[in-house]
Amino acid sequence: MEFAQIVSGFFVGAIVGLTGVGGGSLMTPLLVLLFGVAPATAVGTDLLYAAITKSGGTWVHARRGSVDWRIVGLLAAGSLPAAALTLALVTRYVPGGLGGSAKFITAALGVALLLTAAALLLRRRLLLWSQSHSVDALPPRRRAQLTVLTGAVLGALVALSSVGAGALGVTALFFMYPKLSAVRVVGSDLAHAVPLTLVAGLGHWWFGAVDWSLLGTLLIGSLPGIYLGARLAQRVPERLLRPALAGMLVLVGGKLIAA
Predict the structure, then answer these.
(1) For residues 50 and 39, what is the distance between their CA atoms, to the nearest angstrom?
(2) Cα dihedral 181→184→188→189 (10° resolution)
């Protein structure tokens, strides 16, 4: 079982290195469907897994100056309270807390996967639409409010499913900041994902929904996988990778919703 988990970590890490997304989208469903991990524990473990693995990428982007810290702050102003509030409400009002909300979390995960797949497939069209409709002409205050609101939606979604900080976050930033360079969009989204997944992951740990042994096993496989995927990224066409990943997310998301 541990060897299979290491291989799974390597596989997911390679996909993340190749495409920049797919961590929560792939890891959490694998833990639930393949290894039979309880949904709440799978989400909590994957959140801390994401916080650790994305810290390195954030450090690289920050050193290169490709992080817009104002945008990161606005997103975090919405996402961190939303993530904490979502976990508090679930543990307070759902019978059995996180452990008793398995069906709800599984359904939320399925919906998040479908949204992520749509974001992967429609990102370019959304970017073109935002440019043609003068989204960049929004008043600064209005855009800041939309950014905080986007963070709140991402925070609630990530706290429940561990999915959304990557593809959905990047797509939203492309839409709201069409003149921002792609590398700064990716760097800012990655920097925001670290505190969001850390806060949500620690929340799951506080309520007993993290498997530390599983987390260590996944990291053993994923770290070299991310390195290899990043090295291969320049050789594999993105136009082939993203539709394949989106198709896989649709299949897994549909299965989780139907479960």
Answers:
(1) 16
(2) 60
Q: What percentage of the chain has pLDDT greater than the value 70?
A: 90
Cβ of 249: how many Cβ atoms within 10 Å?
28
Q: Is 18 left (phi over 0), alpha (psi -120 to 50) or beta?
A: alpha
So what's the pLDDT on residue 182?
A: 74
As a whole number of angstroms, the distance between CA 28 and CA 211 comes to: 13
Dump pLDDT digits (tens) for 140-166.
Answer: 888 899 999 999 999 998 888 888 777
pLDDT value of position 205: 93
Contact predicate 177/70, CB 8 Å: no
CA-CA distance, 208 to 45, in Å (whole number)? 10
Nearest partner of 200 among 167, 168, 163, judged by Cα? 163
Dihedral sign for Cα 93, 97, 102, 107, please: positive
Per-residue model confidence as pLDDT tens digits over 119-140: 778 777 776 776 666 566 678 8
